[in-house]
Amino acid sequence: MPYRLLGSSTFRLALMYVLLFSTSVLLLFAYIYWSTAAYMAGQTDDTIQAEIAGLAERYDIRGLRGLTSLIAERVDRQSPTGASLYLLTDPRFKPIVGNLNGWPSVDIDDSGWMNFRIGDYAMPRDNVHRARARPFLLRGGFHLLVGRDVQELADIQQLIVRALIWGTAITVLLALAGGILTSRSVSRRLETINETCHNIMSGDLSQRIATRATGDEFDDLADNVNNMLNRIESLMEGVSRVSDNIAHDLRTPLSRLKGRLESAKLDLDNHRDPGNVVEDALSETDQLLTTFNALLRIARIESAQRHAEFSDVPLDRVLEDVIELYQPLAEEKNQTLIAAIEPEIGIAGDRDLLFQAFANVLDNAVKYAPQDGLISVTSSRSDSGVEVAIADSGPGIPEAYRERVLQRFFRMEHSRTTLGNGLGLSLVDAVVNLHDAQLQLENNCPGLRVRFLFSPQTRPR
Asked: Looking at the structure, do residues 226 and 116 belong to the same domain, yes or no?
């Protein structure tokens, strides 16, 4: 598990987040340190500069005696551990007054400042406090040194540095802990999905990925995978059902074909004309080819991704062509075919497949509607989409069978005496699914009403 955790993409992503976040925190703390230290150092330097200006002014006004008394007064007024440092020397750097024992033997930097340890030039000798001072040359060659104990500033700077180090360390640890917890949580979710997929690949198509009802990305993924599995299971059941139906429904015509061919062979052996037998065999073969072609066409439609080939289909013209094709057949049975087609209705789709679907439904309506029956073809559009309805006054389909009639080879008892193979509505259902539409079979009181519902998305752009 640790190896899988370290090698997981979620953990690597968490490490990248830790690095980015830690860098951000480090830069923030560094800015705080730089700003604070610079501000405090600036305040100290400004204080020293102000004291030098005041002492120089006192020297100009009252001379050496006045300056000496002022420095002595300031030294006496502050505690032995006070922050202000003063030293007035003669031209030879011999101390005159102040709280330093001697002139610091350190170099003056380019800005005119001196940095030294107080313990080297004042009591107690073990005082390691750091000091910062600025020298000033007075008239007469006297040297004035004014400074401050900056140990407090150094302590604060060290405190900020320690806070920066600890803050960064804690941030990294917390981010790592969060990354590990997040990675473990994500890994568990993915492991559940992988385990389910392995079970499915082992042959258990009933397995589904559990969701947590949180509505997150993993639930969306699980829902999509489950829907895909439902579709796959449905297709697998369909394949199994089709195989059974083919074995059952084609066994009889194949047996008849075999018997007729044997009869034709017997006629040929006895020098008789097998003409009628051969004609019947050819007719039976044509029927078998028609059935297999219908199966292949349904399979192609169901497996196709033909949306890219969709074009603007004038639905009113397609329906008019279908009606024109079946009008003569309806007239032969003295049936009334009523059309109420709204003009200029168009959808995005495959014209040939839509024509075939409407033709199959209308063919059934003409076939099962009685003599002097009524058939209607209507179309309309609304904000919810486009609707096409084909209704007849025939025997209809009981509600219990309306799902089953869409299955391949399924035929109701009253339909088995009529010519057909039970694939017409299966093809219609495949075409409807390809167009992301809905197919509804309803009671027409009497008869059947077939509704095609095309969503607004299937309208042409």
From this structure: no
Position 33 pLDDT exceeds 80: no
Tell me how far apart the 2 most distant CA atoms of the chain are, in Å.
159
Same domain, 112 and 143: yes
Cβ contacts of residue 142 below 8 Å, gap of 6+?
59, 64, 88, 89, 90, 91, 96
Instruction: Output the domain CATH number for residue 347.
Output: 3.30.565.10
Residues 104, 88: Cα–Cα separation, whole Å: 12
**Lookup: tokens for 283:** 């007719």
Residues 226 and 258 occupy one common structural domain: no
236-259 tens-digit pLDDT: 776 666 555 555 556 666 676 777
DSSP 8-class letter at 415: G
283 and 332 housed in the same domain: no
86-89-92-94 Cα dihedral, nearest 10 degrees = -90
Cα separation, 228 vs 193, in Å, equals 14
pLDDT tens sequence across 9-31 = 667 777 787 788 778 877 887 88
pLDDT band at 157 (very low <50, low <70, confident <90, very high): confident
Which tokens sit at 116? 């030294």
Whether 388 is in a domain gets the answer yes
Statement to judge: residues 225 and 107 lie in one domain: no
In terms of domains, do 380 and 426 share one? yes
What tokens appear for 330 in the block? 């309806």
Q: Are 404 and 275 found together in one domain?
A: no
Residue 283 lies in domain: 250-303
Is residue 266 classed as helix, strand or coil in its secondary structure?
helix
Q: Is 13 helix (H, G, I), strand (E, B) or coil?
A: helix
Domain count, the chain: 4
Q: Is 327 exposed, middle or buried (0-12, 13-18, 19+ CB in 10 A)?
A: middle
Token couple for 302: 């169901």
Give the predicted TM-score (pTM) of the model. 0.47
Residues 289 and 404 in one domain: no
Q: What residues pair up with 377 in beta bridges, in sequence order?
A: 339, 390
Other C-beta atoms lying within 10 Å of the C-beta of residue 324: 10
Q: What pLDDT, in 10s, does the model give residues 185-213?
A: 777 777 788 888 888 777 777 778 777 77
Q: What CATH number corresponds to the domain at position 29?
A: 3.30.450
